[in-house]
């Protein structure tokens, strides 16, 4: 498929998916979602080991393009067709998804970023839960992400007041992993992805699953889950290679399996 509203690069076990409507702050349309679905199918088939998600131009993503909404349909239709499958794919991807937030991340764009595994933000980036300004609630997993990352008090403030949260504030609140200088953001995100693509990918997939499960599990249930996942991890090539490399005092050669 030829892409007009995104770009997709796949090389050396790393993929970079860029939202590409810079004149519209990469706001999302039905066409963009169609292209994203096709891109995700390509990524699945390629067997990559790390991914970077970012936006072209001066902003990451302004959320849903309101001019592209089909107002004859209930908004849940757009969520079920477009946003929810994307958010679920990110959570279930068997490799780390790194988001590089350049500029504004607003509405569903903010929640797309917060749903990724590791979020790097440029110093000028900001996160805006703009939904209340038009009589809506945060979607695309926003009520879940904000509550679990920053706590209910901050989640309510972000959602109800609809005030921008700076990159530094987002870092302080635990919403993101790191703040980068704007001119270094892209390079550092790509460097991180290339590094993670050389690491034990299967272990990363289980780490993602375990951390997601911890939100609902009791402590005892989580201990049981850790035991099952550790058992599976200990049978992998990468575990054996990691131990052998440690004993031989050399750099491990992980295969991702």
In order across it, which strands form the biggest sheet? Answer: 1-2-3-5-7-10
Low-confidence stretches: none
Order of helices and strands: EEHEEHEEHEEHHEHEHHHH
Helical percentage: 40-55%
Largest sheet: 6 strands, mixed
In CATH, the architecture of the largest domain is: Alpha-Beta Complex
Tell me, what is the CATH class of the largest domain?
Answer: Alpha Beta
What is the rounded distance between the termini? Answer: 30 Å
Secondary-structure-derived class: alpha/beta
| Rounded average pLDDT | 96
- Cα-based radius of gyration, to the nearest Å: 19 Å
Task: Please provide a brief summary of the model.
With 257 residues, the protein is an alpha/beta fold.
Description:
It is built from ten helices and ten strands. The protein is of the alpha/beta class and 257 residues long. The protein has two domains: 6-196, 2-enoyl-CoA Hydratase, Chain A, domain 1 (Alpha-Beta Complex), CATH 3.90.226.10; 201-247. The model has no long low-confidence stretch (mean pLDDT 96).
């Amino acid at each position: 498929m030829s892409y007009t509203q995104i770009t997709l690069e796949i090389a050396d076990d790393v993929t970079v998916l860029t939202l590409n409507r810079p004149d519209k702050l990469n706001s999302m349309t039905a066409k963009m979602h169609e292209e994203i679905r096709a891109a995700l199918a390509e990524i699945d088939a390629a067997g990559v080991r790390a991914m970077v998600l970012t936006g072209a131009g001066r902003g990451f993503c302004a959320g849903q393009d309101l001019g592209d909404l089909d107002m004859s349909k209930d908004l849940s239709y757009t969520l079920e067709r477009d946003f929810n499958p994307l958010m679920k794919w990110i959570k279930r991807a068997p490799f780390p998804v790194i988001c590089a937030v350049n500029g504004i991340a607003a509405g569903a764009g903010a929640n797309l970023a917060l749903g990724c595994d590791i979020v790097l933000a440029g110093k000028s980036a900001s996160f805006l839960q703009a939904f209340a300004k038009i009589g809506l609630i945060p979607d695309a997993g926003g009520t879940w992400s904000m509550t679990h990352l920053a706590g209910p008090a901050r989640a309510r403030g972000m959602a109800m007041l609809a005030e921008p949260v700076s990159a530094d504030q987002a870092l302080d609140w635990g919403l993101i992993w790191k703040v980068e200088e704007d001119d270094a953001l892209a390079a550092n995100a790509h460097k991180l992805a290339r590094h993670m693509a050389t690491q034990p990918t299967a272990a990363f997939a289980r780490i993602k699953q375990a951390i997601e499960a911890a939100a609902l599990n009791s402590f005892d249930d989580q201990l049981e889950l850790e035991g099952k996942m550790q058992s599976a991890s200990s049978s992998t090539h990468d575990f054996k290679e990691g131990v052998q490399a440690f004993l031989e005092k050399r750099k491990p050669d992980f295969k991702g399996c």
